[in-house]
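Module 6 notes. Inverse folding takes a fixed backbone as the condition and produces residue identities as the prediction. Think of it as a translation problem where the source language is geometry and the target language is the twenty amino acids. Below is one complete input and output pair. Work through it position by position during the lab.
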């Protein structure tokens, strides 16, 4: 994954889209985990 000397707009757009999808996946995972903890009564308690 070496950076290209010339900024390819298609590659930049693809990388940005992939990064945004990663952020969405992490956010959804965090929300799902939080909801699961709430629904199961807080786990540790």
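Target side of the pair, the amino acids:
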């Amino acid at each position: 994954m070496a950076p290209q000397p010339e900024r390819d707009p298609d590659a930049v757009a693809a990388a940005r889209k992939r990064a945004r999808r990663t952020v969405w996946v992490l956010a959804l995972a965090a929300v799902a985990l939080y909801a699961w903890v709430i629904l199961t009564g807080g786990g540790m308690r």
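Reference fact for the lab report: Residues 13-45 form one domain.
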